[in-house]
Structure formats: structure tokens, C-alpha cells
Design a protein that fits this description.
The chain is an all-beta fold. The chain contains no helices and 9 strands. It has a domain of about 80 residues: Immunoglobulin-like, CATH 2.60.40.790. A hairpin with a 3-residue loop joins strand 3 and strand 4.
Length: about 150
């Protein structure tokens, strides 16, 4: 019997996503759309090395000036703005790639050292290095008498 054709998998009730397709971000329930351009959730790969975690986020069209990485209360936020530079005098007739914004957030565990996070972007891929926190050190607390 021949194997069934390969289809994209679904996860937690989500619609299947074709290879290479960008996933639009869904606004929170009851929220109004206030942007005139699409917002995408960048696809990521997260890998672990001996001393760090690495996040590779696909953000086609994003350059160093169009990306922002912030960390607040252990929430790491990735934001990017992709532009489609066209030569002067050229008008788009048909586009399969629509420029837009990218947004994604991750909650970091205590195992990550937030002071050592590094980020680089190259060729539309944002690469973050999140160093692992060292072992907790014993701290003596002085006890005083009243």
C-alpha cells in the first residue's frame, strides 16, 4: 500500500501551515486593527548548546535598523519591520511577499542570564544568544543583634 502524501502537521487545533508560508499574528479578542500593514509571527528554531540557548527567528526583509529586541520582567520581545525597497519609477504589479511587521515574545526561565543576551541580524534571520546562568553561589547574610 503506498504511503499517504505528506501534509503539514497541525498543533493544538491550528490550521496546517505550508512550508515557507508566513503566519499572520492574530489580534487579541476584542482588539481593533490599528496598523495599515500585516503583522506576522516569525518562525523560530531554538537550539541548546553547552553554555547557551540560541533562537533563530526568520524575519525576511528586516535589517538591523528595523529590528528591536527588548527584555522586561523576563519577557523577551522580538519586533521587526520589513520594507520592500523598489527602484524609483517601479510599481508592484503582483507580490507574493508582502512587507509587514513581525512580533513574537518568549518568557525566559531563571536558567538564562539576562545580562549576557546578544542579538545579530543577517539576511533576514535574527539570531539571539541567551547564555545559561551559572550555578547559584552561596551568599552569607550577616546576623546582627539588637
Amino acid at each position: 500500500m503506498p504511503d499517504a502524501p505528506a501534509t503539514p502537521s497541525t498543533s493544538r487545533g491550528r490550521k496546517p501551515v505550508a512550508e515557507g508560508e508566513r503566519v499572520p499574528a492574530k489580534p487579541p479578542e476584542g482588539a481593533e486593527r490599528t496598523r495599515d500593514r500585516p503583522v506576522y509571527v516569525p518562525r523560530v528554531d531554538i537550539v541548546e548548546t553547552e553554555d547557551a540557548l540560541e533562537i533563530l527567528a526568520d524575519m525576511p526583509g528586516v535589517t538591523r535598523d528595523g529590528v528591536e529586541v527588548t527584555l522586561e520582567q523576563r519577557v523577551l520581545r522580538l519586533r521587526g519591520r520589513a520594507e520592500l525597497p523598489l527602484p524609483e519609477g517601479v510599481a508592484p504589479l503582483y507580490l507574493e511577499y508582502e512587507p509587514g511587521d513581525y512580533e513574537r515574545a518568549f518568557t525566559l526561565s531563571e536558567a538564562v542570564d539576562p545580562a549576557g543576551i546578544e542579538a545579530r541580524v543577517r539576511g533576514g534571520v535574527l539570531r539571539l544568544r541567551l547564555p545559561k546562568a551559572g550555578p547559584a553561589k552561596l551568599q552569607r547574610i550577616e546576623v546582627r543583634a539588637d
